[in-house]
Every structure is written in C-alpha cells, then in structure tokens.
Amino acid sequence: MPNATAGVNAVLRSLRFVAGDELLLTNHTYAACRATAEFLADRCGVQVVTATLPFPCADERAIVEAVISRVSRRTRLALIDHVTSPTALILPVKRLIDELHLCGVDTLVDGAHAPGMIPLSLTALGAAYYTGNAHKWLCAPKGAAFLHARRDRQAHLHPTVISRGYSTGFHAEFDWVGTLDPTPWLCIPGSIRYMGGLLPGGWPEVMAANRALVLRARALILDTLQMPPPCPESMIGSIASVPLPSPLFFGTTMLVQAFLLGSFEKLVHYVIFTDNVTIAVVASTLFVLRRRGSGAGGYCMWGYPVLPALFLVCLLAVSARVFMLEPLLAFAGLGILLTGWPLFLMGRRFFGA
Asked: How many CA atoms lie within 13 A of 290 on its CB side?
C-alpha cells in the first residue's frame, strides 16, 4: 500500500454493500477515509453512521460505550482509528474489536499513526482488517504502508487498481498492480532496524522516550494554561492534543495587527521576517550543540556543515530583503521577538532548566 488511506479504500470498495447497510465511523475519523464512506453512500446507498467520541475524554469506557451504542442490526462494518488524527487519542481497539465481534460486526482499523508509536501485534488484535503507515514513526520513505487482512477475510479483497494478478490470490493481486516504484516498501526493514538501533533498549526504549517527551510537553502546556488534562496518560502515545482557549483572543490579535499595519501585504512581510529570523535562530543551535560535543546525542544531519549553513544563508537573505523593503516592520518584529527572551528566562527559572 502507498498509504493507509489506500488500504481503507481497498477494503471498503471490495466489500459488497446493499442499500440500507450501515457503515459505522466516529467523529474522529480521518477526513479522507470519511470521504470514501460518503462515496459508498452515493454509489450504493450505504448509511454512514457516526459515533460521537467525547473529547475531553475521562476514560476508555466512554469511548467503547459511544461506539457500541451506535451499532444496529444493519451495521456491516466499523471503521475505527487506532490513533485518532484530530485528537491523537489511542483508542481501546482491542476492546472495540471484541465488543463489535460480539455484535456480529467486522472492524477495519485505520492504524496510520500506530506502527512505531505503540506496540502492535496484529494477531493479538484479531481485527478483520488493519492498515497502517510505515512512513510516519517507522521513518520509512513516503509511500510505505501495509494492509493486513485476517485469513478468513482475504478471499474477497481486491486492490483499487485491478491488474493481471486478479483472482489469483490475495498476495498475487496486491503485490503487482502495474508499474510503480517499490523502493519505499523495500526500505521498511532497513528503517525498522535503523530506528530500533538508535537507543540501547531498541524499539521499546525509542517508543518510551518519544512518549516521555510528549507527556512532559503536554504537562508544561497544561500548567501554563491552567487546564486539566483532556484525557488520561494511558491514551497518549507520541502525540498529544490540548484544547486551546477560545480562538476569539487569537482572532482579535490578528485583526489588531492588520489594522495597525494598514494592509495585508505588510502583515505578510511582518510574518515572513519574524518567522525566518526565528527559524534561523533555531537552526543555528545545531552548530552550537555540535561545538559543545553533543553530536553523538542526535544533533547531526546529512551534509553538515554545508547544508545547514546554506539553509541559514537563504533564511537570512530573505530576512534582509524584507528588512530593506519594510525596515519599520522588521524592527517591530525584532522587538517582539526580543521581548520573548526575558519571558523565556522567567519560565526557565520557574519550570527548571
């Protein structure tokens, strides 16, 4: 598969639906996958039913209850995210698969973010269908994904592109769908070995380290905003979602800036200048950390020092051009950036280095 969305399409477009059949999704379903369900609704009269998952969410039980409550005798298939795209919740897919099975409903798990983020055993899960990406947390090239189907569900599955392997078996059909570049798929084993070798404890330590970082970042944001956790830590992997305060403040701030600057073009120049300066400062830390001898800890990149130096030169060239066009805006942007320095020092002192 080139991506998990293609895997979802292969399953949904292989199954035979009749008018009135129900396809169960959630309000956290990835938009591209929902579009596929809507395509089926237009083509053959499938009813797309949406289970509303709570967020903030108190516990896994609320998720299970929200999904099962929407199952009916017409439900043919449930499309469930393993890690939700809009809210980054790790859903209790094993419990959902088992509960849905008791209701006579197969489960298609969209595991786009799961491989490499959390431990994954497809056999233990027992889902009828599972699709996932290898170009995210496994760091394989883009276009690397997979589709797993339980053996008793393989016979009726076909790729979205029918080629000369048609009707010769599950693997034969999916292995060759015409001319394409299989390089991303062939890179998956190497990516797994490389990423697993970054830390002494292998993949368990890599996943634990990523999770520890995101939990720490989430705690800092929640403490700063004085907000309660939107979900328990058990439902977080390597991504966390935090509901922000009302967008009214942000929208008002942008309108005030646009009013003071006088035109949208000036606002664009202001944003470009401040963004480029900020990115240049961040990028320059690579040289600082390498000079301190921190390269072995992961502060390294291909083409160092030429490539990052060229990147910095390009950023500063664009900033210099904006400075010449709008010097007052540039000074205003620098002033705002510099006000962040004492705030950073205060926060560092408060939260610890």
From this structure: 11
